[in-house]
Amino acid sequence: MQTTDDVKSELSAMSFEEILKLQNQVGTKVYNEVAYGSSKSRAAGRKKRLNKNRPMEISAKRRAPFLRQVVSVKKPKLKKTKTNTPHKEDLKFLLKKMDNQERARKSREEQRERELQFKRERRERANQGARPFFLKSSDKKKLELADKYEELKKSGKLETFLSKKRKRNAGKDRRKLPRQLQNERFQ
């Protein structure tokens, strides 16, 4: 049986046309295995991880693949943990944090969409020959508040939001009052 070095030396002596004919006769897969070595031998040359939990070492010289293989990690669920463990408190905190991050991401996207809408309107007006308008930050905040109230009204949470806001404002007002008035007012 010939070794890969013998096969490579024979292939180097052949012309390009002869190599193509050989590749068509035998098949591309078989030709590549004979010419360059089998895929199993190449796979054996790869390094294995010492620990399955460690990340795979990849050369930085090659670009990362567009669609990477993502390995799923088992995540402990909140319902399965026992009631009085500190681990459950950590999980609750993380869950709340993730919800807040998601809410913040959505609000940033909505803000970006609003900005794009203003820019589109500005461009349309400029194309029609009108002077462009630029909103002040206070006007932008008023429009954001109006949108927020509309969303709360649709979801039916407007009353609870307003009552909480009233309580907050009352607390702020109470702190601003002088001590004598506070004592007289709440007795």
UniProtKB/TrEMBL annotation:
<keyword id="KW-0690">Ribosome biogenesis</keyword>
<keyword id="KW-0698">rRNA processing</keyword>
<keyword id="KW-0539">Nucleus</keyword>
<dbReference type="GO" id="GO:0000462">
    <property type="term" value="P:maturation of SSU-rRNA from tricistronic rRNA transcript (SSU-rRNA, 5.8S rRNA, LSU-rRNA)"/>
</dbReference>
<dbReference type="InterPro" id="IPR009292">
    <property type="entry name" value="RRP36"/>
</dbReference>
<keyword id="KW-0687">Ribonucleoprotein</keyword>
<feature type="region of interest" description="Disordered">
    <location>
        <begin position="157"/>
        <end position="187"/>
    </location>
</feature>
<comment type="function">
    <text>Component of the 90S pre-ribosome involved in the maturation of rRNAs. Required for early cleavages of the pre-RNAs in the 40S ribosomal subunit maturation pathway.</text>
</comment>
<comment type="subunit">
    <text>Associates with 90S and pre-40S pre-ribosomal particles.</text>
</comment>
<protein>
    <recommendedName>
        <fullName>rRNA biogenesis protein RRP36</fullName>
    </recommendedName>
</protein>
<dbReference type="GO" id="GO:0030686">
    <property type="term" value="C:90S preribosome"/>
</dbReference>
<feature type="compositionally biased region" description="Basic residues">
    <location>
        <begin position="163"/>
        <end position="178"/>
    </location>
</feature>
<comment type="similarity">
    <text>Belongs to the RRP36 family.</text>
</comment>
<dbReference type="Pfam" id="PF06102">
    <property type="entry name" value="RRP36"/>
</dbReference>
<feature type="region of interest" description="Disordered">
    <location>
        <begin position="95"/>
        <end position="137"/>
    </location>
</feature>
<feature type="compositionally biased region" description="Basic and acidic residues">
    <location>
        <begin position="95"/>
        <end position="126"/>
    </location>
</feature>
<dbReference type="GO" id="GO:0005730">
    <property type="term" value="C:nucleolus"/>
</dbReference>
